[in-house]
Design brief:
Keywords: ATP synthesis, Cell membrane, CF(1), Hydrogen ion transport, Ion transport, Membrane, Transport. Helix content is 59%, strand content 15%. By secondary structure, the chain is α+β, with helices and mostly antiparallel strands. Strand 1, helix 7 (121-135) and strand 2 form a beta-alpha-beta unit.
């Protein structure tokens, strides 16, 4: 049975994080993983290329050599294990899992902030501070999303919870209350 990308990402990311804790290299490995993510942004098909059956083993290994040469120690070994198990196309899922564990350890809440119009950086920081306080984290890192359908207000999703302060939600609640009468 072939595992889906999310399951693979969770397993490998967890294993890497546990090894990073053991080696006391959590931050260094995290920085290397951010670099790898940037490489994948510049070359989005890298994972597919290194998994492509149309390339010979030597061709893929030459590409992998260039890719892995910028990393040392645990990260270099990790990249080669991922390559050997033909999972390079799942690498971003692994990085996501490591980052989720890293943020949890550092008490950083991740999520989104949805508004009808773009908000200023200052307003975003103000909302992030409130969300961190509400959920009991040191900080919150919320990705802004613009969705005109919410009409106005804010929807915050973080730590698997939703704070819905949108005008659309309030109007729907009012509509439901009025329809009961």
């Amino acid at each position: 049975m072939k595992l889906d990308k999310y399951t693979v990402g969770k397993r490998y990311g967890k294993a890497l994080f546990e090894l990073a804790v053991e080696k006391q290299a959590i931050d260094d490995i995290y920085q290397d993983l951010l670099t790898i993510r940037q490489i994948f942004k510049k070359v989005p098909d890298l994972g597919n290329i290194l998994s492509d059956v149309r390339l010979t083993g030597d061709e893929k290994e030459a590409i992998m050599q260039k890719f892995a040469q910028g990393f040392e120690g645990v990260v270099n070994n990790f990249l080669w294990v991922v390559y050997e198990y033909n999972r390079v196309d799942d690498l971003l899922f692994m990085i996501d899992e490591y980052e989720r564990r890293y943020d949890s350890l550092n008490q950083v809440a991740l999520g989104t902030i949805t508004t009808a119009v773009p908000i200023s950086k200052e307003k975003q920081q103000e909302i992030e501070a409130k969300v961190a306080d509400i959920f009991g984290y040191k900080t919150a890192n919320l990705t802004p999303v613009v969705d005109e359908s919410i009409i106005g207000g804010v929807i915050v999703e973080a730590d698997h919870q939703v704070i819905d302060g949108s005008l659309a939600s309030q109007l729907n609640g009012l509509r439901a209350a009025l329809s009961k009468k």
